[in-house]
Amino acid sequence: MEKPTLQGEMIVLRPFRPDDADAVWDMLADPVGARLTGTTATFSREQVEAWCASRATAEGRFDFAVTTTGSDEFLGEIVLNDIDEAVRKANLRLAMRPAYRGRGYGTEAIELVLGFAFDGLGLHRVELDVLAINARAKSLYENIGFRVEGRRRDAYRDGDGWCDAIDMSMLEDEYRATQLSR
Length: 182
Prior knowledge:
Structural class: alpha+beta
Pfam families: Acetyltransf_3
CATH topology: Aminopeptidase
Number of domains: 1
Protein name: GCN5-related N-acetyltransferase
Number of helices: 6
Shape: globular
CATH superfamily: Gcn5-related N-acetyltransferase (GNAT)
Number of strands: 8
Strand content: 25-35%
Keywords: Transferase
GO molecular function, one term: acyltransferase activity, transferring groups other than amino-acyl groups
Strand order of the largest sheet: 1-2-3-4-5-6-8-7
CATH architecture: 3-Layer(aba) Sandwich
Largest sheet: 8 strands, mixed
Oligomer: single chain
């Protein structure tokens, strides 16, 4: 399937491009973002460039660059991956650059991707995990309509310690109910 562009009120989600590498490199250098997303791996500049260049043809996933309407600046990424067509489910991941957190871009990005997942791909379930230390993200997901399913103890590293992962999901009928109430 060709990688779509999704248009919202404030943002445009477009496919990744090779020239996104500079912004992705900056985003990966953010220690707060790495901690809140459980990112412990380190990447070379060459790996980031190759990864950005490969997103357009990556199978079984949709990687979107979050940009604002009227500007092509890379604000963050939202990914629908681990797509299982037989079970009709996928995983969702969001990461925003520090300057663009808390401005509503992530909320709109999630809503656009959920519409694409349920209406465009015909999925039944979208799931994610959020670190227990990331109360702001957990609250965001709950406000959108995701439900907590469980907790995986010590699932991520947090410096020298550990951090639980909170598993969350939204089902197709729950998504439809949130759309009717808006």
